[in-house]
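W.,

You were right to be curious about this one. When I first looked at the sequence I had no strong expectations either way, so I just let the prediction run and decided to look at it fresh. Below is the sequence, 461 residues in total, followed by the output.
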Amino acid sequence: MRRLAILLVAAGGVLGVLGVSSVSAQTPSTDVGGSSVADGATDGSDDLGLPAVDVLQVSGLVDSIVADEIERALERAVTDGSQAIVLQINSKASVIGRDKMRDLYELIEAAPIPVAIWVGPSGARATGLVAQLLSAADATGMAPGARIGRTGVPLTDSVDFGSATELLQNQTIGFQEARQQGALKLEISDEGAPTIRNMVFALDGIVVDGVELDTAVERLNDDGTVSNDITVVRFQKLGLFNQLFHTAASPPVAYLLLIIGLALLVFELFTAGIGVAGVVGAVCTLLGFYGLGELPERGWALAFVIGSMVAFAIDVQVGIPRFWTGVGLALFAVGSWFLFPTFDQQNLRPSWLTLLVGIGGIALTFVSGMPSMTRTRFATPTIGRERLIGQLGRAVTDITPDGSLQIDGARWKARTNRATPVKAGETARVVAIDGVTLEVEPEEGGARDYRERRSKSTPEQ
């Protein structure tokens, strides 16, 4: 039961982290290539006869998966005849390096169709090198409550945010200030663009490379009122596996996957055979290492985390937390704290809650959980086992030559000579111990030790 509990906790933690990350990283949308609109995006505009507008959500850290998806989304928009594509950005940093971000910047800048960037919804952020992508877009807008900035050193000479260019290099600004300082390339009302519908509506009438976008029309209703309808908005998102790997490449998820996987592998070392814990541990470890491969990490800190597991395993083997458990806790705490450096002007270290869960969970596991499991599993066959020699037990199964023997309520592996099998229910005597296996013989009719018989038959001198 203890083994099952530990496994369920670990698996639940992984599923919970992945589930929360996936929910926070997506909005209601259809699969890539689907034609659909989000809630509130249109008001019966599917019969307007206007070319569609594609929307791709860029959420979380910009890694190689997201960068490749942006490139594919631009290609799909051209192939599908879209009149424009909107990148919905909520990202605090990139983890693909300046050269690849420069390539992405130039790709957006030279795109064959108009590219707009909307930083939304409210509370969204576009900071670090990701924020510089706004300068490459043909039209940019923000939701109220969103912020952009801390752009750092420009990727190219063409990075321009008007009078806010230098200001944005070291701090962030909100919508109103960005609008006043000319950092946005789209005329939006004082309320900003709170939804993607507002952003698509604001694109109507702008001219890009001599082509005027036609994304909305005014419609006269039967009651005499006028309504504004927008064209079809097609939402695109990462596929299932890409979303999984993108989620794994975030610092808190990669960190938790790694430590859960390593802990389960250590647990599996002290169990018989390869079980579910080993398979889950291997999968979590591989996903964790994939995430670390996409993220900037300190090699020495990762070595500390792995070394801590070796130290923990030494004391788990004896079933008592001692000196090596303390060494493991120290290595693990230091490695966890320094695992992720500051990158793209963002401290990638997981939150305090994530570190508390990771360090506290590992401490509880290796100070209490696994030593208790080891004592429960191995204490009986290793402590005081010599006293079993000569005792009688009842065969639970046929011992021919291997089987099970019960002594004082405890069940043991047993082995006997092929010439002296013991049937289930019969009594057998323990004559020796080989590791964790009892060597037994029938209570009557077993092989005799002739040296013992000669000793007893020799008359005293």
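Here's what jumped out at me. Confidence is low (pLDDT under 50) at residues 1-46, 449-458. And, maybe more interesting for your project: DSSP finds 14 helices and 19 strands in the chain.

Coffee later to discuss?

I.
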